[in-house]
């Protein structure tokens, strides 16, 4: 059997290799995996970490995903929707504080009022953030669920920045049975093949396409996670956003429990590092959920190959109501405090924050010639 030290030197990996890397628990082997992923990231995507200022502008959702704290049937969470001016002000703050990009996220809706509202917000953000430092305006990542191709195209045009246009739409798991278990609401409002079609539509509409999975779902195996990585490859993704499965008080899966936190953290870091080794030129975000498991969790994500971080710049008064999982960190921090903290913590990993930079995926650049 090959050693971990031998496997991490490879550039091509068998399923057996991937499962072996995902299964690492020995501290010495874990250190070898971490260093290999960090070094591979340095070689392929550089020493920079890119900001995506996260604006969670509404927790109103029309869907009932069983794992989610803001699902439609959770009647204990106060619902909110930020107005246009508040969202735009947050975006302008990001631009003035040298963030190259933001991420707009909300619960999933498909009604015309919502679609047109987002369109208007995108146009205004672009108009207000073009500057000598950001000649194309802020980069925009949208995380607004499944929409039609026509809606994706409408939003792409409104963003005004085709070289900084991204969409994050996680498929959560490539195991169809697990996917259905996560979404077994009446009418099967989500399907895995439909999700893959939406990702194809995003590619057609010109987005840098991002997806990802939850790690440690009850019933998930290492073989499932290996197939998730193979699915990342098959979809030819430009960026990955994935994190640990953490239960939520408002969800419908509390009775199924979750992995012990230390083991879940180890598995999550293994998944990040292995993905970096297998697909070296993509952007990988250090999920805030890592920090819910362990202090300095996001920094550990960076040490295992992540090169994107998403500081929460949502107004603090409503931030507590956008809890997709329990114990979400940084709810009470002001954006300016988060900024200072992140600069220091990212530098502690040996990386540098790239300011006034779109931070587009190198994989996307290689794929498109940009």
Automatic annotation (TrEMBL):
Keywords annotated in UniProt: Iron, Iron-sulfur, Metal-binding, S-adenosyl-L-methionine
Pfam families assigned to the protein according to its UniProt record, in alphabetical order: Radical_SAM
Highest taxon of source: Bacteria
SUPFAM superfamilies: Radical SAM enzymes (SSF102114)
Keyword Iron-sulfur: yes
CDD domains, alphabetized: Radical_SAM
Domain Radical SAM core: 47-285
Cofactor annotation: [4Fe-4S] cluster
Record flagged with keyword Nucleotidyltransferase: no
PANTHER family: 3-METHYLORNITHINE SYNTHASE, BIOTIN SYNTHASE
Protein name: [FeFe] hydrogenase H-cluster radical SAM maturase HydE
Organism: Parasutterella secunda
Gene (name only): hydE
